[in-house]
Structures are given as C-alpha cells and as structure tokens.
Amino acid sequence: MTGPRAAVLFNPAAGRGTARRVAEQTVRHLGTAGWQAETVTGRDTAETRTRAAESVASGAEVLAVVGGDGMVSIGLQAVAGTGTALAVVPAGTGNDFARTLGISRDDPAAAARLITHGVRRSVDLGRCGDRWFGTVLTSGFDSLVTHRANSMTWPRGRARYNLAIVAELARLRPLPFTLRVDGRLVETDATLVAVGNGPSYGGGMLMCPGASLSDGQLTVTVVEAVGRSRLVRVFPRVYKGTHTSHPRVRTYTGRTVEIDSPGVLGYADGELVGDLPLRAECVPGAVEVMGPAVR
Asked: Which of 13, 201, 244, 271 is least surrounded, with the fewest CB atoms within 10 Å of its CB?
C-alpha cells in the first residue's frame, strides 16, 4: 500500500543552495511520514512551469513550493482550479503568501510539517488574464520599485525593497490612472495603485491591509499624487498598514478591477504581468492550500 504523493518544487540556484537544502529536508520529512515525494525543478522558468504542471496532471495530491513568492507564483499557475493542494515552505526573500496563510517563515521544518499535518482549505486568488496571483497586483511607484528590486542581487529581503524605494523616489512623478471597480469609474492622478487579493507584498508591506483570502473581493489602495517629502513620511506606515488613514489614500473593494495608465507596467506576486491596461478579478475558492488552522 502506497501513501499520498507530493511534488516538491524548488529552484536549485536560489539562496545560494538554501532552497535545495530545504527541499531535501522536506522530502525527508515526507518520506518519514509515509508519503511518496519527488523533487521538481527546471533549467529556467518556462521549464519549471512545465514540470510543475506535469506533476499536477500526473496526480500529485500536494505541490509543495520551496521558495519565495516568485516560486509560489509558478506553483499557483499549476494548481489553481485543480484538485491538487498548494503547500508553501518559505525559503525566499518576500514570502508574503506564506505570511498571509500564517505559515512560519523562519522554521522550514515546521512549514514542512503542515504538508502532512496541516489543514486543507480553499482560498481566493486574483486572476489577471491567464495569470493567477495570491498577493498584490501593483502599478505605478510600487511596480517601478518591484521592477528595480527584481534586478538587484544585493541586499536581500526587505532591505532590497527599501533601497529600491530610495532609488525610485528620485524619479517620482504623478501618473494619470483610470480605474473601474465593479464598473465604478475612478479617474485620478496617483503615485501608485495596488490591487490586493492578500494584504501584503515586498516582504511585509501591508499595502492592502483590509484584503482577505476568503471574502471574494479585491481590495484597491490608491495613493493619490503626493510630493517626495510627503511620500517619505507616509510610506513607512505601510509596514503597519496605517497609511490608509492618510487623507491622500483611497481604498475600494470589488470583484473586478480594471486599471489603466499610459506606459505603466503591472506586477503581481512580484512577477511581471505586462503593460496596463489590465483587468483583474477575484476568483473565490480558486485554490486549495495546506496551512495552520484558521483562528
């Protein structure tokens, strides 16, 4: 009699070998628990996506992603709308989807135990065209920051985003945005617009603090046009989510969000989606996840 089967997805080059070590530990845990486990990786992003999809199609009960939000994004594309659950073993720089699920970001062994002993539940995802996202779709200043941070190799973690913020502040300018939130038209000059399925991105920045993975809605945060000095004062509040009380910040909720601004890129889960205009929608219960019990 064989046990349940899991595929462990990881990038062998990530974290100077950290992801590989954590993936090997995860496979050992699964074997000890009586599971069948295989590692899944590829030579590049495209091959990794293909291998992940093949593992799901072949009947893996769980796709365990070892890495940060970039690897989680690859995993989400493979498991969304299927019977395969996603498990996350954080080993990246952002880890915001894991943070939202309540998974330990400092204890890979504890995260791995949730694959076999966690609670399986359905959560919402955002969808933008054919791309699924679990955290935040960003545009404007924050997408410029993400674009810059993704091109940097040093420093790691939150410090990388902080440094990217400083660099982009020097080029700050208001951008004309047109939004439709469930058909409601919003036109404004803004510094940034963020569409959250979950509350945080960029390693704990609570840009959309009211966002939930279980309410069937997207939360939109609009930071209206502000000067550099005011943004410097307000932006640190994003780590506690208190920026939404500022008079130049607006929030909206809706099932669908259309967003446009000439020449602006959109990023979701830290990965490039494409040029605006983009249309995002919340898909309730789009994916099953393994995690701790919800309190």
From this structure: 13
Task: Report DSSP state, residue 244.
Answer: G
Q: Are 133 and 269 in contact (CB under 8 A)?
A: yes
Residue 179 has, within 13 A of its CA and on its CB side, a CA count of 29
Geometric angle at alpha carbon 104, from 88 and 45, rounded to 5°:
30
Rounded to whole angstroms, the Cα distance separating 37 from 63 reads 10
Phi, psi (degrees; rounded to nearest 5) at 202? 65, 30
pLDDT tens for 22-50 read 999 999 999 999 999 999 999 888 999 99
- Which residues are paired to 220 by β-bridges? 195, 252
What residues are paired with 239 via a beta bridge?
none
Structure tokens at 291: 């995690």
On the CB side of 241, CA atoms within 13 Å amount to: 12
Cβ neighbourhood burial of 179 (10 Å; 0-12, 13-18, 19+): buried
Structural tokens at position 204 = 């704990």
Calpha distance 26→8 (Å, rounded)? 8
